# Entry
Amino acid sequence: MRQLTALDAQFLNVETATTAAHVAGLAILDSADGSLSRDALEELLLDRMHLSPALSLRLAAVPFGLDHPYWAPDPGFDLGNHLFELTLPAPGNDWQLAEAVAEIHARKLDRAHPLWEMHLINGLPDGRVAIYTKVHHAAIDGISGAETLATLLDLSPDGHLKRGRIRTTAAEDGAPQRYAAPSGEDQHQEKAPGLIGMLAGAAVRTATHPVRAAQSIVRAAGDLDAIPLAAGLPGAKLIAKAARLVARERPDRPELPSLAVPRTPINGPISARRHLSFGSVSLKDVKIVAKANGLSVNDVVMTLCTSALRSWLRERDALPDGPLIVAVPVAVRTAGARDLVGNQISAMVAPLPTHVSDAKQRLREVGATMGRAKRRFALAPATWLSELCSLLPVPVTSLATPTIFRLAGMAFPPINLIISNVPGPQFPLYLCGGRVLSYYPLSVLTDMSGGLNITCFSYDGMLDFGIVACPERVDDVWSLVGHLRKALDELLDERVGDEFRDSVGIDLVAG
# Structure
């Protein structure tokens, strides 16, 4: 039976009265024919749950919290604990939907059952329905979460691919791909170790922890110059280079700029309340900007977020003189990996040039900064996130984590926020016959990472943004969506202006 890793367990440890550590998605579907009902969802889930181990496994705790929990089948599984339905009051607009989903998103999952819920939300206009799904971050990361969602989706309204799994990305020729359903051996249906087995395993891992902790320190030391807070310590770069030499790794990794975190309204202890907003921009327009400037789509996405944050902070007279510091999750799940339970992620930490006033210059600086971070990551994917989670003994980690996160949020936040960009399929998908129109990802807030999280998912020609905020830290989450759209318009206008100047050979001067 699979045991949670130190990183998986950290997502359990971080949960408090004000922090819920699940990732979620809000899908908007066209169901004008009324085929998408609770009964249809129930039938679909029961038919395909075997394709997604995370949906049928619950936590099996080790006595006294002496070791990380295990994943075990739930013998009393009841879909009624996971599938819910509600109807919005008229007129059922986006603000009402966001308010209803924010309330659900703020609630922690019940650890007595498999750690997921699905909510069918009726009452939207024009024959649309919404489906909000959340799964605990201990069970999935961004990529495995997208794969889990894909097991429920079809390539056509008739749902003929009931026994296949759709990839979340397309092949080079743009054709959708399929996975075969996993065999019984792949579905983690073995029982968790008994009491004696759990205690024996805990004893062995406790006895060997000093050795493993020392190994984690050595491995993490090679990334000391890339770890928030630690990178600012005197001699951090020299220590990191020496550690890489000892470990026989390449010592000449690209140096990162300063990771000093400015104080902003979005940082500090959070409350239990959540507000959220969502919206979309054209992926085609983003690609136009990327191609015109020799950058990647992700570089443009990060620039849009940079510009939106700059505008939001300026409106509140809270724009720092230096850049914000952002953490960008990176999937390290190997191609073809069959295990869809747990986390295989790392993170890049980089500055966002919110202090730069010119839009074109912001784009160039984001491209340069992210390019340097990506080159460094390509040379040696950072493991420091997992290594730091492994340093302390399990009982100490579970008790200390909430306090560490709270104190860090008050005194020395390591980052200003987290921004994620998850690639998705560029063709329409269907669920119970209803076409998925948009899919807005929603993620986690913690005291340490700040009261704002921006996540983006590319789907069928659009970039769908989901923004989660603590209302005590972010007073207007909807204005950020507007700023994202204005930021893209600004970059498109810059591109058109450049092309016009090139064609006529003169500089345009604003009148």
